Amino acid sequence: QVQLVEFGGGLVQAGDSLTLACKVSGLNLDSYSVGWFRQAPGKEREWVAGISWRGEPAHSPHSLKGGFTISRNNAENAVYLRIDSLKPEDTAVYSCAAGVVDFRYNGRKYEEYEYWGQGTQVTVSS
């Protein structure tokens, strides 16, 4: 059974940093790309960043502005998202998804992935 579990969320203050982890079991992550998504209250889910199976990062226009770093450790079967200089508008449920996607052409939509995690809440206070 494939499971994706996110860790690292919590309540932080504006300006703090967080590293979220997406730990995968039941699947060899070596062959999969992973995307991070977030959904703020009352808003649609949005793609934040992704990392290809080769380790190449991809960013949304928002995350490209800075503060978001994605990495992977295939030995740990895990992908990480570090967020620096957190702002209250970064408050959301952050979730990861694994799939056979190529960020040059797709991977920005949740439904393009095969496996999904439940998400972890990040709350940023001002």
General description of the model:
The protein is mostly beta strands and 126 residues long. It has one helix spanning 61-64, and strands at 3-7, 10-13, 18-25, 33-39, 46-51, 57-59, 68-73, 78-83, 92-99, 115-116, 120-125. The strands form 2 sheets. Strands 2, 4, 5, 6, 9, 10 and 11 form a 7-stranded mixed β-sheet that branches. A 4-stranded antiparallel β-sheet has the order 1-3-8-7, with no helix packed on it.
Question: Descriptors for this entry?
Answer:
single chain, 126 residues, mainly beta, seven-stranded mixed β-sheet, four-stranded antiparallel β-sheet, 1 helix, 11 strands, 48% strand
- The helix tally amounts to 1
The dominant shape is: globular
By oligomeric state, this entry counts as single chain
Hey, roughly how much beta strand do the residues contain? over 45%
